[in-house]
DNA sequence: AGAGAACAGGTAATATAATAACGTCTCTAT
DNA sequence: ATAGAGACGTTATTATATTACCTGTTCTCT
C-alpha cells in the first residue's frame, strides 16, 4: 500500500500552517532568536500551500497588505533568517522557497516536485544521502551539503490523468 | 586506492577540450543538427575549465573577442542547443554551465562541486538515481528528471589544506 | 535608568540571470 | 530560383538577488 504524502492529497491545510507557526515559535524561543512579526508573516505566506513560493510573490503580498510597497531586502532578510533556522528550504531549481516539514532537527531535505500541481514533497531518505556520500567518498570528495530536487508527477496528479 | 577524478587533479586540459569538441562534431553530425561556429565556440568556452561558467561570463568573452558586444540571447540560444543535445549540463544551484563528460548517451549527471576550487565533478551513479526513484515510488511519485548537486571539498583541495 | 552594542528593517540603487518580440540573413531542399 | 526553416542580431523587458546606507528598536551591562 502506498502512503500518499500530505502535500499531494487534499487535507485541512490550515492545520499545517498553524502547526508550522507554533513549531517555529517554540524553536526560535529555544534558540534564543526572534521570530518577529515580519518573519512570522513570511513564514506563514511560504506555508500558504505546499507549492514553493518565489521571493517576489511574497513581496507582492506584503506590498499589497502594507500599502507601502515592500522592497526586496525585506523579504530576503526574512527568508535568510528562516533558512538559517531551518524553518524553510530553498529550491534551487525553482528559485523558490517552501516550508520545512520537520524543523525540529537540522537537515537538508530531498524534494519531489510535481510538474502538474507544483507541490513539493519533502523527503528525508537516508538511503539517498548515503548513496551520495558513498559515491563522493569513492572519488575522495567530502560532502558538506546536498541538493536533491526531482521533477515528476505526484500520486494525485497521476490519478487525475 | 582512491581514483581521483580528472576534474580535481592536474592534467593536460587542452586534450579535454579538443576531445570534447571532436565528440560534439560527430554527435551533431549523427543527429543531423548544426554545430555552428558560435555554438562550437560557446562549447569551447564552457570547456575552458572544469568550473561551471555563467552565461554572462561567456557573453563577456564573446563580446570582447568580437568587438561588437554580444547580447544575452546569443549565448542562451547556443546554451539551449548544447543542453538539448546533451553537450553541456546546467548546474541549477550555481546558475552555470559545465561541459558534459559523456555526451555519447543521454543522461543527467550528478555533480560534486568543490567549494574551494569550484570544479564540478560529474558522476553517473546508478545507485544514486535508483535510490531516488525508489524513494519516490514509495510515495507514488513518478520521476521525470533529477537534479543532484553536492557541495564539499574535492580530493585535491583536501590535500592542499 | 542610561549608554552603548547588536539586531531588525526601511530605502534606493544596482547587479545578475533569463526571456520576449521582431527582423534579417543564410542554408537547404525542391 | 525560390520558399521555408533555422540561426542569429538587436532592443527591450522581466525575474531574481545583493549592496550600501540609514533609522529605530531591543538587549545588556552597569
Describe the overall structure:
- The structure is a homodimer of 161-residue chains.
- Chain A is α+β, with helices and mostly antiparallel strands and 161 residues long.
- Chain A has helices at residues 13-31, 37-46, 55-66, 72-84, 126-138, 155-160, and strands at 88-91, 96-99, 110-114, 120-123, 142-153.
- The first copy, chain A, is globular, with a radius of gyration of 17 Å.
- Chain A starts with 12 loop residues before the first helix and ends with a helix.
- The mean pLDDT of chain A is 95.
- The A-B interface holds A 2-5, 8, 92-93, 110, 112, 114-115, 121, 123, 125, 127-128, 130-132, 134-136, 138-155, 158 and B 2-5, 8, 92-93, 110, 112, 114-115, 121, 123, 125, 127-128, 130-132, 134-136, 138-155, 158.
- The first copy, chain A, binds a DNA duplex (30 and 30 nucleotides) through helix 4.
Amino acid at each position: 500500500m502506498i502512503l500518499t504524502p500530505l502535500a499531494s492529497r487534499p487535507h485541512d491545510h490550515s492545520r499545517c500552517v498553524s502547526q508550522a507557526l507554533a513549531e517555529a515559535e517554540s524553536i526560535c524561543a529555544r534558540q534564543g532568536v526572534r521570530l518577529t512579526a515580519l518573519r512570522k508573516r513570511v513564514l506563514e505566506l511560504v506555508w500558504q500551500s505546499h507549492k514553493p513560493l518565489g521571493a517576489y510573490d511574497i513581496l507582492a503580498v506584503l506590498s499589497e497588505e502594507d500599502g507601502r510597497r515592500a522592497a526586496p531586502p525585506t523579504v530576503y532578510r526574512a527568508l535568510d533568517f528562516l533558512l538559517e533556522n531551518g524553518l524553510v528550504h530553498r529550491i534551487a531549481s525553482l528559485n523558490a522557497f517552501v516550508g520545512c516539514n520537520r524543523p525540529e532537527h537540522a537537515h537538508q531535505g530531498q524534494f519531489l516536485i510535481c510538474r502538474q500541481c507544483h507541490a513539493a514533497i519533502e523527503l528525508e531518505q537516508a538511503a539517498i544521502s548515503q548513496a551520495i556520500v558513498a559515491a563522493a567518498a569513492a572519488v575522495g570528495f567530502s560532502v558538506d551539503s546536498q541538493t536533491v530536487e526531482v521533477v515528476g508527477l505526484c500520486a494525485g496528479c497521476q490519478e487525475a490523468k
